[in-house]
Write a structure and sequence with these properties.
Blueprint (H helix, E strand, L loop, with lengths): L3 E5 L7 H9 L4 E4 L8 E5 L2 E5 L12 E4 L4 E2 L1 H13 L9 E4 L3 E2 L2 H14 L11 H9 L12 H22 L7 H15 L3 E2 L1 H10 L4 E4 L25 H6 L8 E7 L2 E3 L12 H10 L11 E3 L1 E2 H11 L3 E5 L9 E10 L2 E3 L6 H5 L2 E8 L16 H14 L3 E5 L7 E3 L7
Parallel strand pairs: 1-10, 1-11, 2-5, 2-10, 5-7, 6-8, 7-9, 11-15, 14-16, 15-19
Antiparallel strand pairs: 3-4, 12-13, 16-17, 16-18, 19-20
Helix pairs in contact: 3-4, 3-5, 5-6
The structure holds guanosine-5'-diphosphate (GDP), 6-O-phosphoryl inosine monophosphate (IMO) and magnesium ion.
C-alpha cells in the first residue's frame, strides 16, 4: 500500500491525466485536490478520447472511487455535465464511485463574469485565464465570502448568503466594469437545482480518505495545472489561483503529510504554456510550429494554441525542489521523433550571472536567456516500443540526459496518448 501524488512540473498539460489513468489500475481512490475546470485532462482508452475538467482521471476504471477534495473549486454545471456524458457513454457514476467534498467552494456566475471582465480590462497585460471564474472563486474563499457545496442544500441560507454577496458583485460588475448585473432569483433557482443533483454525491472527503488509508487502500492524488502556475511559487502574476505543488494535496484533500509516500512529477519531453507570461525556452520558428502540430498542442479547455519550446531542465529542476519529487515520468517523447537536433536548457544566463533555478521575480526571469545542451535526434517510430532497450540510441541518450540533469529516477516513458503506450521502468506503486 502506498499513496502517490502526481503533479505537473512545467506550465500544465504535461499529460497528467493519461498517467493518472494508467496508475489508477494500482490505486483504490483517485483524488483531485486543487484547481477547477480550468484543467483539461485527456485520456485515450481503446481509441476513445475522453476529456475531464473536474472528475478525476481514474473514473474510467470500474470499482475505483474518485473524489473531489475541499481544495477544488467546483462549477456544478460542468460537474453534472461530465457525469451525464459518462452515463451516456454507459458508465454509471454512482455515489459509491464519486464523492464531492461538502467543503469545496462553488464557482458562481459572478465569478465567471468578473474573470472575463477583468481580463478584458487588462488588455495587453492580461493573464490569459481560462475565463472559468477560477481566480474570483478562490478570492471569495480567502475573503470568507464563498459559497460551499453544502450551502446548496439549504435553500433559505443559500438565498440570504447569495443576496448579500450579489450586492457587492453587481456593484462591481455594473459600476466598475460596465457589465450587466446578475439576477439573484435566477441564480438561486439554477443553483438549488444543482444542489439537488449533487447532494447524494456530497461527503467528507477527508474522513473517507482516512478510512481508506486505515484499511490499507492506495490513494492517488491528481494534480491539475503545473508547478510554475502555482500561486506562490510560479511565474506570478502569470499563474493560476491555487497552490499546484504536491504539498497542497494535503490541504486540498484533508490528509496529513505523513500519509504521502511518493511524489511523481510529469515532464513533457518539451515545454508548452497556454496564456501569457515568461517562457525562456519558447521556440518561435517553424520547429515550434512542427511540435505544436505533431503534439496536437491545442488547449483541451479553451482550444487555444499552446506556445511550444525546448525542454527546460531549469524549470523541471525547480519543480523537483518545490515538490520533493521522488521520480519523474517523461511524456510525449514520440513527438520529438524526426527533429534532427534537440535542445535541452541546462541553465540560464542573466547578464553576467548564471542561474540553475527559476528566479521568483518576473523581471529577473524575463531577462534570462537559456543555456542549451544540444543532442542528436532520431528518425525511428517509437510508438510501438515497450522496453527501454529497444529505443533508438539517441532517444536513450536524450532520456539519460534528462534523468541525469533531474537527479531523480525516471519511472515511466510515455510514447503515445493511449493507456498502453508506455515503457515502465519503475512503477510508482512498487515498494
Ligand atoms: P494534462 O492536462 O496534464 O492531463 O495534459 P492534457 O491532457 O491537457 O495534454 C496532454 C495531451 O497529450 C493529451 O491530448 C494527451 O492525450 C496527449 N498525450 C499524453 N501523453 C502522450 C504521449 O506520450 N504521446 C503523445 N503523442 N500524446 C500524449
Ligand atoms: P491542466 O490541468 C495549462 C493557465 C491559463 C492561464 C493561467 C491562469 O490541464 O494542466 P486560470 O483560468 O487558472 O485563472 O488561468 O493558468 N492554466 C492552465 N494552463 N493547463 C492547465 O490545466 C491550466 N489551468 C490554467 O492558461 O495562463
Ligand atoms: Mg490539460
Amino acid at each position: 500500500m502506498s499513496n502517490v501524488v502526481i503533479v505537473g512540473t512545467q506550465w500544465g498539460d504535461e499529460g497528467k491525466g493519461k498517467i493518472v489513468d494508467l496508475l489508477t489500475e494500482r490505486a483504490d481512490c483517485v483524488v483531485r485536490f486543487q484547481g477547477g475546470n480550468n484543467a483539461g485532462h485527456t485520456l485515450v482508452v481503446q481509441g476513445d478520447k475522453h476529456i475531464f475538467h473536474l472528475i478525476p482521471s481514474g473514473i474510467l476504471h470500474p470499482d475505483k472511487v474518485c473524489m473531489i477534495g475541499n481544495g477544488v473549486v467546483v462549477d456544478p454545471a460542468v460537474l453534472i455535465g461530465e457525469m451525464d456524458r459518462l452515463r451516456e457513454a454507459g458508465l454509471a457514476v454512482t455515489p459509491e464511485k464519486l464523492v464531492v467534498s461538502r467543503y469545496a467552494h462553488v464557482i458562481m456566475p459572478y465569478h465567471r463574469a468578473l474573470d472575463l471582465a477583468r481580463e478584458n480590462r487588462k488588455g495587453s497585460t492580461k493573464i490569459g485565464t481560462t475565463g472559468r471564474g477560477i481566480g474570483p472563486c478562490y478570492e471569495d474563499k480567502v475573503s470568507r465570502n464563498g459559497i460551499r457545496i453544502h450551502d446548496l442544500f439549504d435553500p433559505q441560507g443559500f438565498r440570504s448568503k447569495l443576496d448579500k454577496i450579489l450586492e457587492e458583485k453587481n456593484f462591481m460588475l455594473e459600476r466598475y466594469f460596465g457589465e450587466a448585473p446578475l439576477d439573484g432569483e435566477v441564480i438561486a433557482r439554477e443553483y438549488l437545482r444543482y444542489g439537488e443533483r449533487l447532494k447524494p454525491f456530497a461527503g467528507n472527503v477527508s474522513e473517507r480518505l482516512q478510512e481508506a488509508d486505515r484499511t490499507g487502500k492506495s490513494l492517488l492524488f491528481e494534480g491539475a495545472q503545473g508547478t510554475h502556475l502555482d500561486i506562490d511559487h510560479g511565474t506570478y502574476p502569470y499563474v493560476t489561483s491555487s497552490n499546484t505543488v504536491a504539498g497542497n494535496a494535503c490541504c486540498g484533500a484533508g490528509i496529513g503529510p505523513s500519509r504521502i509516500h511518493r511524489v511523481i512529477g510529469i515532464v513533457k519531453a518539451y515545454t508548452t504554456r497556454v496564456g501569457g507570461g515568461p517562457f525562456p525556452s519558447e521556440i518561435l520558428d517553424e520547429t515550434g510550429e512542427y511540435i505544436r502540430s505533431v503534439g496536437g498542442e491545442y488547449g483541451a479547455t479553451t482550444g487555444r494554441p499552446r506556445r511550444c519550446g525546448w525542454l527546460d531542465m531549469v524549470v523541471v529542476g525547480t519543480s523537483i525542489r518545490l515538490n520533493g519529487l521522488s521520480g519523474i515520468v517523461v511524456t510525449k517523447l514520440d513527438v520529438l521523433t524526426g527533429i534532427p537536433r534537440l535542445k535541452i536548457a541546462t541553465g540560464y544566463r542573466c547578464g553576467s550571472m548564471e542561474m540553475g533555478s527559476v528566479p521568483p521575480e518576473l523581471e529577473a526571469l524575463e531577462a534570462c536567456v537559456p543555456v542549451y545542451e544540444e543532442l542528436p535526434g532520431w528518425e525511428e517510430d517509437i510508438g510501438e516500443l515497450r522496453s527501454f532497450a529497444r529505443l533508438p540510441a539517441n532517444a536513450k541518450r536524450y532520456l539519460q540526459a534528462v534523468e541525469e540533469l533531474a537527479g531523480v529516477p525516471l519511472s515511466i516513458i510515455s510514447v503515445g496518448p493511449g493507456r498502453d503506450e508506455n515503457i515502465i521502468l519503475r512503477h510508482p506503486f512498487d515498494d
